[in-house]
Automatic annotation (TrEMBL):
The keyword Zinc does not apply. It is found in: Cell membrane. It comes from Metabacillus endolithicus. Coiled coil: none annotated. It comes from the Bacteria. It is a multi-pass membrane protein. This is Multidrug export protein MepA. Belongs to the multi antimicrobial extrusion (MATE) (TC 2.A.66.1) family. MepA subfamily. Its main location: membrane. The keyword Transmembrane helix applies.
Length: 450
């Protein structure tokens, strides 16, 4: 408990930021590797129809992750603010209440989805060709996918409890186990798409087990439970985490929107090409959630402890890191697009051509997406939920859906791939023009008032 407080109070902000950032970003990337590996193994071991089916089921994985981020970030923000205020019992209560809300909410969703599994598959865009692999993967997600959500929830709290490296280790071991089980279930046992899903959730069980010893350490906050639950605390958890829910469910809108548009214009070949892009995007997009999970404990703690200069420096570091990360991801996509497509075992030349063009255009969005995440996370971490929500609604819903509807009509297939990059560019420009200076000014005013 004292170690985390001393680090945040006494160490340089840059050191603390990267102490959180590197494990957070690698942890989120390792989390998304599970879905990426499923795609690679299914592409090689089952075929292109299986790959399309897993892609169609992917929004449910996103929903599970969205709920874990919603409750996890909301609870962990309260947790870190309480530690900054030296209210340890309140911090512990934030964890236990968040765990209870997560269990009840995700349990209800999974039961409802399992009962109506074929209807859900149809809603997600499955046709006669892809219905079977889609329902196979959905069966696993609705019955055991909560394990992956629990792993992410625990990872967020343990990171806020001063042990970001443990989260990275858990997710790294999960990915390794997933590789081994995918090979066994798909290539040795012939379980196909069902085997890919089963490998992922069983690997998640191992990841959760790695977290258990943390709760028995004397020097951490989460070595005891607390039950000071109140309606106000539950409301704060749900409200503060809500922008994270919107950000991640925006990915569902993104996937379904693209799938429906591509089915209508390019057919099954287009869906297969997009499935490659979507797997890669799911892997790389979560790197920006790494920035969020690095910023959040710092901003929340400094806010609770009234350390505004440290908040200001954290924001500047996060901006530079987001821009640098986005540039790296764009270059990787542009230069290595053909190699990335071949990873998934795609052999049809028309599909390869579509996917390579899509990657090179779509990855432009990474140059701008980080700015939205930095300021959404700042507002969320200090409890300004409405400001964070507006950013997410604009970039993930408003601008994207408008561009996805308009651009293909104007410039054809290129307009499909450019819908997200132009939406991200629009949001980044608006933030720089109207939000960034206001935040910097507000932090300075608050600093002078203490």
């Amino acid at each position: 408990m004292e170690t985390l407080q001393q680090d945040l109070m006494n160490k340089p902000v840059k050191n603390v930021f990267f102490h959180f950032f590197f494990p957070a970003v690698f942890g989120m990337l390792l989390m998304s590797v599970n879905m990426l590996l499923d795609g690679i193994f299914v592409g090689h071991g089952v075929g292109e129809i299986g790959l399309a089916g897993v892609n169609l089921a992917a929004p449910i994985f996103t929903v599970i992750l969205a709920i874990s981020l919603w409750i996890g970030i909301g609870g962990a923000t309260n947790f870190s603010i309480a530690i900054g205020e030296e209210s340890i019992e309140k911090a512990r209560s934030s964890f236990t209440l968040a765990l209870a809300i997560f269990t009840g909410l995700l349990g209800a969703i999974c039961v409802a989805g399992y009962i109506n599994i074929q209807t859900v598959a149809t809603w997600l865009g499955a046709n006669e060709e892809t219905l079977a692999p889609t329902t196979e993967y959905l069966t696993i997600l609705f019955s055991l996918g909560w394990i992956l959500g629990l792993q992410q929830l625990l990872s967020i709290f343990i990171r806020n409890d001063g042990r970001p490296m443990l989260g990275m280790v858990s997710l790294g071991v999960t990915s390794l186990v997933n590789i081994i089980l995918n090979y066994i279930f798909i290539f040795e046992l012939g379980l196909g798409v069902y085997g890919a899903g089963l490998a992922t959730v069983l690997a998640g069980v191992v990841g959760v087990a790695i977290f258990i010893p943390h709760f028995f350490k004397k020097q951490v906050v989460l070595n005891r439970m607390a039950w000071a639950w109140t309606k106000q605390l539950a409301t704060r958890i749900l409200a503060i985490g809500f922008p994270s829910l919107l950000a991640e469910t925006g990915t569902v809108i993104f996937i379904v929107g693209y799938n429906l548009t591509i089915v209508a214009t390019l057919g099954t070949d287009g869906v297969t090409a997009f499935s490659v892009i979507n797997y890669l995007h799911g892997f790389m997009f979560l790197a920006f959630f790494g920035i969020e999970t690095a910023m959040q404990p710092m901003i929340s703690y400094y806010h609770g402890a009234k350390k505004k200069l440290q908040m200001q420096e954290t924001i500047r570091l996060a901006e530079k890191t987001a821009i640098g990360l986005g540039l790296i991801l764009f270059v990787i996509g542009y230069v290595f697009a053909p190699s990335l497509v071949r990873l998934f075992g795609v052999t049809d030349s028309a599909i390869i051509e579509l996917a390579v063009e899509g990657i090179r255009l779509f990855f432009i969005s990474y140059l701008f997406i980080g700015i939205s995440f930095v300021y959404m996370t700042y507002f969320q971490s200090v409890g300004k939920v409405w400001s964070a929500t507006v950013i997410i609604l604009c970039r993930s819903y408003g601008f994207f859906l408008v561009y996805l509807f308009v651009l293909p009509k104007i410039i054809g297939v290129k307009g499909i791939w450019l819908s997200m990059p132009i939406a991200e560019l629009t949001m980044a420009v608006l933030i720089v023009l109207f939000v960034r200076k206001r935040v910097q000014k507000q932090v300075k005013i608050n600093q002078n008032s203490y």
